[in-house]
Amino acid sequence: MDFDFNSLLAFIIFGVTIGVVYGIVALGISLIYSGLDIVHFAHGEIYMFGAFIGLFFSQVIGVPYPFAIIGAMIFAALLGMFIERVFYRRLTQAGGGYTVAGMGMIICGFGMSVALMNVAYLIWGAAAEPFPVDLGMPLQLGDISIPQSYVLTAVVSMLLMVVLNYFIRNTKLGLAVRAVAHNKDIAYLMGINVPLVISLIFGLGCALAAAAGVLIGPMQSVQVEMGYLMLMKAFAAAVVGGFGSLPGALIGGILVGIFENLGAAYISPSHKDIYAFLLLILVLIFRPSGLFGVIAKVKA
Amino acid sequence: MLKIKELHAGYGRLKILRGISLDVSQGTIVALLGGNGTGKSTLLKTISGLLPVMDGSIEFDEKDITNSKPHHIVRSGLVQVTQSKEAYPAMTVEENLMLGAFTRSDKAEIKYDLEGVYSFFPVLKDRRNMLSGTLSGGEVQMLVTGRGLMAKPKMLMLDEPSAALAPKVVLEIFANIYKISQTGVTILLVEQNVRMALLLAQYAYIIRDGHIMIEGKSEELINDPAIKEFFLGGTVTDTSKGLNA
To answer: What confidence score (pLDDT) does residue A112 get?
Structure first.
């Protein structure tokens, strides 16, 4: 195969675009991890629910696409807070993270994943639904043409990251989120309503996943089983970037996206999904704490 | 101001405090003394609401706060300053201080109080934009004390402010505590540094094995031979006497 610089550039651009989506799902996982000391294994299903809700808003109700994203985010946040309050709270109260109760938390996450998937089967069935969104002609960038959905995805994801970062770094509530993430007892002593902030963190993480679902929808199609692979990729992204590190999650996502696209383009397209985990294994061998592992140690 | 009656508390089923009664009247400094593992920190955590009360009652500012939520207790003006290692290392000094004012929304006054804390601890002003993880032990102690003041407390509970600090720094810390109490803040001082604490406080409780062993006015306790022997191990002959007993 002749080397063609333009197609390499195109693969990288597509890789980055899909990568920022992995990044925002990973961001949610990382946020929940640093806030609650749990790895949320049902996050892929929240992403799937987000995609279906977005589809519902956009196709059935007929609201414009950007509002479908916002609607899905709000709904997923409420769903997440409900799940956290009703199911996870009992377990995290017994101690999350590395304790025996934390093990129960992992099992509970998997159970929630299965339960949510089956609820989705009941509501939407097993068939893949197309998510047609008319965004106009592809963007021409030299010889490369980029579909508008990719452009929108990159823009919206970046916007979400910037807003989240501003919220965490510069607002009073963001300060509380960081305090709760680092040490809940001290956060209590500062007068912070810790359970409420935990709900907020969980809702925020789920809203990010839902946004990713609605963004990916038009590129692929929406189906009940879509969450599983996304969870795995986002997980890989979070680990590559350094678990618990927010900038790490984004960079990890972009790396996974590029790696996967280049692998599919130059090695073998039929094994597209393997490359993310290849990268994961490489990072774990050479830098087990992830690329931003040092930052990950001082959480958030 | 703070009234504790027959308090029983602990972790899970493990009972640490077995009937503590303690009184702190407004505007005073009261010391709570005792060695490691006697229940001092457990008592503070229970008062702050981090641990459940098994039996007994806690009253603050004429309101019952037994088993209140920790953030409600902070809002009522009872603020705990934790041991020095527990600042937020990944936050800047100023962020830590602002976190102390989390319960307040009076922006102008918060700013005024922030300047107050800075004039109290000028070192913190120099280091305001540094991560608190880079501060020295004494500076972190100033930071957590300042953070406590930012909540505009009626009463401060200080958990071993002199722990693991150089003697010169300890003097400075205690001088600061005295200054804070002069501004009208009631103080419960938990300490292992018995001599310093007794010099500063008006009244003291000595805790051992989860109950109050001795209590009394500081000037009486400081000359009490039993206290001397209990905390300092007496003389060498006394120590050997203790070993044979």
So the answer is: 92
